[in-house]
UniProtKB/TrEMBL annotation:
SUPFAM superfamilies: Homeodomain-like, Ribonuclease H-like. This is IS481 family transposase. InterPro entries: DNA-bd_IS481-type, Homeodomain-like_sf, Integrase_cat-core, IS481-like_transpos, RNaseH-like_sf, RNaseH_sf. Pfam families: LZ_Tnp_IS481 (PF13011), rve_3 (PF13683). It comes from the Bacteria.
Length: 317
């Protein structure tokens, strides 16, 4: 136990005070004057030494030995049980007949002060298809166009505005097995743009000797359109959609978008959005051929395609 910062006597100072009285024959008032404390303090430590010996000179806890208003263990258990039944603080306070502040204190110590802690997060279900092309994740990211660097670079939200510049719609694709990615920028997110982006993605992966068999998308209007369904049927691709309001089902596409924003879209200062768009193929090349991935044992995605050496050199040149 720590000694108070303003305490005149430490354990050793109390022992010296007692020795001066017991062994050296000083009167308690004289020993108190020498130690710079009151006579009452000298008598207190002398009495504790006589009753408990040298261990009695150590600090004691200031906690009371008996507290008549302390909650019983049964009351605490009842508060926790009501909380696990998803009761709010006010309901628990009325049911147990204790103040709301007491309920809050008990639940905070039990780690149940937030309702989110009552339902533990479901275990993460990770999956990966066996071969490239078994599943292709698709998604769209909307980025604002600009004629001059914006506030992310300049720090001025007024001077860097580009009024009525419009939007860029980045259609992205990532292979579930290899993480080889592809992206293109379209002027909108209609069904026509979605199926054109799908056709371009299929041609890109075909150049890597990857045949697409399934695609996974969210429930956006462009992916529910007839023209996109017709394109999937014509290409012989099975189309699957995620559950509503569960973006983590398409988590690989969502993670690719985060990486693209951090490493491409917002990575440097572009003079205008066309310059940003022109840099997208270079970033994709770095992403697929050079960037290490933790999920692939820190190897680039192209290593998962198992391309022959001649094809590898030809595609990379």
């Amino acid at each position: 136990m720590n000694t108070h910062k303003n305490a005149r006597l430490t354990v050793h100072g109390r022992a010296l005070l007692v020795r001066r009285i017991v062994e050296h024959g000083l009167r308690p008032v004289e020993a108190a004057q020498a130690a710079g404390v009151s006579t009452r303090t000298a008598y207190k430590w002398l009495r504790r030494y006589q009753e408990e010996g040298w261990p009695g000179l150590h600090e004691r806890s200031s906690r009371p030995r008996h507290c008549p208003h302390r909650l019983s263990e049964a009351t605490r258990a009842r508060i926790v049980a009501l909380r696990r039944a998803r009761r709010i603080y006010r309901e628990i306070s009325i049911a147990v007949e204790v103040p709301v502040a007491t309920v809050a204190r008990v639940l905070q110590r039990a780690g149940l002060n937030r309702l989110s802690t009552l339902d533990p997060a479901p275990p993460v279900t990770r999956y990966e298809h066996d071969a490239p092309g078994d599943l292709l994740h698709l998604d769209i990211k909307k980025l604002g166009r600009f004629q001059r660097p914006g506030h992310r670079v300049t720090g001025d939200r007024q001077a860097g505005r580009s009024y009525r510049a419009g939007w860029d719609y980045v259609h992205i694709a990532i292979d579930d097995h290899s993480r080889v990615s592809w992206a293109t920028i379209k002027p909108d997110e209609t069904g026509a743009s979605a199926w054109r982006a799908l056709m371009a993605a299929v041609r890109y992966y075909r150049g890597l000797s990857v045949s697409i068999r399934r695609v996974l998308t969210d429930n956006g209007a462009c992916y529910r359109s007839r023209v996109f369904a017709k394109a999937c049927r014509r290409l012989g691709i099975q189309h699957r959609r995620t559950h509503a309001y569960r973006p983590r089902t398409n988590g690989k596409a969502e993670r690719l978008i985060q990486s693209a924003l951090r490493e491409w879209a917002y990575a440097r200062s572009y003079a205008h959005s066309d310059q940003r768009a022109a840099h997208l193929p270079y970033w994709l090349h770095h992403y697929n051929w050079h960037r290490p991935h933790a999920s692939l044992n820190y190897q680039p995605p192209v290593t998962r395609l198992r391309l022959p050496v001649n094809n590898l050199l030809g595609l990379h040149s």
